[in-house]
Amino acid sequence: MRRFSIAPRRLIPLLLLLLLVVALATACTDPMSTIDPKSDNTRRVQDLYVLVFWAATIVFVGVMAAALIFSFMYRERPGRTAQQIHGNTRLEIVWTLIPVVILAVIAVPTFDTVIKTTGDAPEGALEVIATGHQWWFEFEYPELGVTTANEMHVPVGRAVNVKLRSVDVIHSFWVPQLTGKTDMVPGHDNRLWFTPEVEGEFRAQCAEFCGTSHANMRFRVFVRSQGDFEAWVANQKKDRVAPTADLAKQGEQVFLTGACVGCHVVRGTAAAARVGPELTHVGERTTIASALLDNTPENMARWLRNPPAAKPGSKMPNLNLTEDQIQKLVAYLESLK
Length: 337
Ligand SMILES: [Cu+2]
Fold this sequence. Notes:
- It is a single chain.
- By secondary structure, the chain is of the alpha+beta class.
- Among the domains are: about 30-120, Helix Hairpins, CATH 1.10.287.90; about 245-335, Cupredoxins -  blue copper proteins (Immunoglobulin-like), CATH 2.60.40.
- It is about 40% helix and about 20% strand.
- Strands 3-2-1-5-8 form a five-stranded mixed β-sheet. It has a three-stranded mixed β-sheet with strand order 4-10-9.
- The longest helix is centred in the N-terminal third of the chain and has 34 residues, at about 40-75.
- The protein starts with 7 loop residues before the first helix and ends with a helix.
- It binds copper (II) ion.
- Copper (II) ion binds near residues 171, 208, 209, 210 and 217.
């Protein structure tokens, strides 16, 4: 009986093909994919990328094919030496002009894309100030009087004009499907804008090494219908919901008499320090710890027990809270919807 086997030489192209298929299949489902645009500006960049990709492919295939064909046609054979071309002016002009034309064709849409994507945001754009902190993002909506952290909400179809700031070191604002990377530099306001084209939840990440927990400095962008966005804003503008359950009430006391008030804001209470993330509606967020952990009571407890253990380098220290205090704080924080 013959054993079924594939020669290693044949296996390599098969593996490469499989890799290509996997890469293409995951490119469109990966939430951090840069080739799956969901805003006007990322789509413009993608269109340019596709044009340059095909131009480069045609040049590569053409040059490789010509090199192979000519080296075969003009190879050295018995009775004939290999041929070289020298000093053919017409040929020299032709192969100088072809790249000039290709580069000119690529340059026009390149400049057009750069001007469109880096110019001023369209009239009526939503203003957001994004501030980088080690290691979390703060979002302020100056026209709406809303401040939040790590989860940015925007309406679909309306341009968003984001002012970028930093309070400590250089960070970088990056939402792969909505906008390219732009640095957040202390003492120097940068800006970017984009118009989200579809509703959804988009992953985002600091893209400039900024210290110990750089890799854990994430955020999310929620693109919502106009109605949902307005409802979100209306809720954000309210002071905190006063706790009703006993455990949550006790949690508020722990919060207001402990170290928490030294760093956080909970509007409607005495907590008004803007060092760490604003917490007035923290219970409504889907994540905590700069989008590192899902917002569940278990994760909130884990965070409170020892923040630097959950996120290395966290500026919030281990407060040595008792298990009783932690359970009360969890009940309180999760009630802040
Ligand atoms: Cu960073």
